[in-house]
Each structure stands twice: as structure tokens, then as C-alpha cells.
Amino acid sequence: xxxxxxxxxxxxxxxxxxxxxxxxxxxxxxxxxxxxxxxxxxxxxxxxxxxxxxxxxxxxxxxxxxxxxxxxxxxxxxxxxxxxxxxxxxxxxxxxxxxxxxxxxxxxxxxxxxxxxxxxxxxxxxxxxxxxxxxxxxxxxxxxxxxxxxxxxxxxxxxxxxxxxxxxxxxxxxxxxxxxxxxxxxxxxxxxxxxxxxxxxxxxxxxxxxxxxxxxxxxxxxxxxxxxxxxxxxxxxxxxxxxxxxxxxxxxxxxxxxxxxxxxxxxxxxxxxxxxxxxxxxxxxxxxxxxxxxxxxxxxxxxxxxxxxxxxxxxxxxxxxxxxxxxxxxxxxxxxxxxxxxxxxxxxxxxxxxxxxxxxxxxxxxxxxxxxxxxxxxxxxxxxxxxxxxxxxxxxxxxxxxxxxxxxxxxxxxxxxxx
Length: 419
What we know:
Layout: E1 2-3, E2 28-29, H1 35-40, E3 67-80, E4 85-100, E5 104-115, E6 118-124, E7 129-149, E8 154-175, E9 178-199, E10 203-204, E11 207-228, E12 232-233, E13 262-270, E14 273-282, E15 287-297, E16 314-326, E17 339-352, E18 358-372, E19 377-391, E20 395-410
Antiparallel strand pairs: 1-6, 2-5, 3-4, 3-20, 4-5, 5-7, 6-7, 7-8, 8-9, 9-11, 9-12, 10-11, 11-13, 11-14, 14-15, 15-16, 16-17, 17-18, 18-19, 19-20
């Protein structure tokens, strides 16, 4: 019988993120909407990019001065109590936003939705042998969005996300010095819709307060189709079922001599519902205090146990954030007006479905941005550091994230302003 003790989580270098959070359900949900939001620890609701604008909230896009093409890069590191260090780096999003005459806006983005990559090894209590479960891939989101000015004080944003992608669950078993391998491929598809509201109704000359709200729901719950491939002896130790049978260390049976994979339609397994509230209080000299409170109910079906390495999923998440921003000015009078500064504290509580235990995440964020060029191109740098406690078996892990965002501006459809 195998004991669920985690021996290690393998470093995959510069390709994949390695955290135990990736092993729950369909993976760790991405809440990164650019380096600016990373800089104050917010998710996406309140302004972080520029005054009155969040790249993740289409209700705020009409406040942009220019059309923007945005891309971002992340580098992450996770350290476990035993001293092992795992790293990740790669592009995190691509986005195109067009404000139209300060009244409307539309945009299109391509982002990671979940990260699934992890590697877990369990050791036998009774026999010589071990089992390694390795997951790769995740779900992506292609999201068109619009923003509309509803009234003098309110704006509405709507996003529709097409969710798609594939992942692999690779099981490796070492029994009596023989390594066996089996691969499962999972194809994912679904869709969701998000509604955003922004109001400056309470934004007075002596009391600058903006309020924000968000509700997200599933239109088509994420379905999973599983392809279960044939069990084989991994004689060459590659972790893949090779097609060649020439080498004396060829896999047995080789891939060209096995039946096609068994196909299983697992069905609708994941239909999250989200709700967020936020505020932005404008103080003197472009300083702003922001805060967010959010809740996510993931609504997993019991079928997740068929593809989750830990046989568990995150059932719900509570998010709390408070931060301070100082944005660059609309009119650039000197070089100091080109800088923006951000910082914040954030806390998340994840509740597990099967064990009902909670994982607590606390962290600190810091960042700055710099405007250059006539169309207010912007580059942002941000850093987060924090820890998670309550993780199964390993209990704690610390994490750090470095994020860079580049936004290039243009004048398409924008009401001409004085440059």
C-alpha cells in the first residue's frame, strides 16, 4: 500500500511553475492581470495601471488616453521547508485595448487560466518501489471585452472567455527495479462571462472615492475528455512512450504496436462563480488607497478525483488586499512625473474540498512604472514575496514573483487630446 508522503517536487527550470497548488483539481487559477496589479497585490478590479485604469477591468478602459498593446513576463520561485527551490519564467499574457472617445472601449486578451504542472512522488511502505505523478499543461482563456459608459457616474464592462487547452497526467511506477509508464491526456473546453461596474458617484472634490464590483459566472462548465494510453515498460527512462524499437533499451511494447487510447468523456467538472468588491480613495498629490475583497466558489464535481494527483481540489477562495498607488500625471512637466509607485498587502484563504482544510497565503507587493514616448508607452516592474501554510504533507512553502509589463500606446479611435 502506498503512503501519501511527498518526497520531492522536481525542478523543471525555465518552462514550468512548480508549486503544490498546481496539483489541486484542474490546477492553480491565474489571477495575474499584468505587472501593475502584481505591484500592489490586487487581482484585477481596482486601478493599478494608471489613474482610474486596471488592465483587468474593462469598465475602466474608457479612461485610457491611448490604445495599448500589452504583454508581460513573469519569473517565480517557490522554496520548500526542506530547502529545495523550484523556478518558473515565461510570458504571462497578451492584450490589446482600444478606448473610443472616452465613452466606450473594447479589447482582446490571451492569458493562462490555470497552471497544472507539478511532479509528486509517493513511496511504498511494504515493497521496494515508488510512483511518480507528473502533470503538464493547463487551460488558456481567449477573452474579448467591451466597456461602456452607462451614465455620468457609472461604467459597465463585460468579458466573455473561451476556455480551452490540454494537459497530461504521466504516471511512472518503479517496481522491482523495472520502470512502467502510462500517459493520460486531458482536453478541456468551456466558457465564462464576467460583469464589471465602476462608479464615481461618491467622488467629490473633498472626498475622492470610486467603487468597483465584479460578478463572474460559467456559461459552459469546463468539460474534460480523457485519453488513456497503454501501459508500457519505460526501458530507456525517457518518461515518454517512444516509437522506436531498434535500441536494446527500447520501450516495451513500443508505441507503434499498441492499441489506440481509451477515450472517456468525463463531462462538466468545473463551473466557478466569482464575486469581488473594491474601492479607490484618491488622496492628495496623486496618491491613492485601494482595497479589494473577493470570493470564488469553484463548484467542482466529484469527477476531479479522476485526474487530480492529490485527489483533492480547492473548493473556494477568499481574497483580501489593501494597497497604495501613486500614479504618474496626465501632464508630464518633468521626469519625476513619468514614474508611478505601487505597494500592497494581500491575503488569500483556500479551502480544500475533500479534507476541508484551509491553506493560508499572505504576502507583500512592491512595484513601479515609467512612462516614455509621446503616446505614453509604459513599462512596469513588480515584485511579490509571501508564504503559504497548511499545504498537505509539506505544510509550508515560500514564494516570490518578479513581473515585467510593457504597454505600447497609439492613437487608434482615441479622441484627440493635447499631447
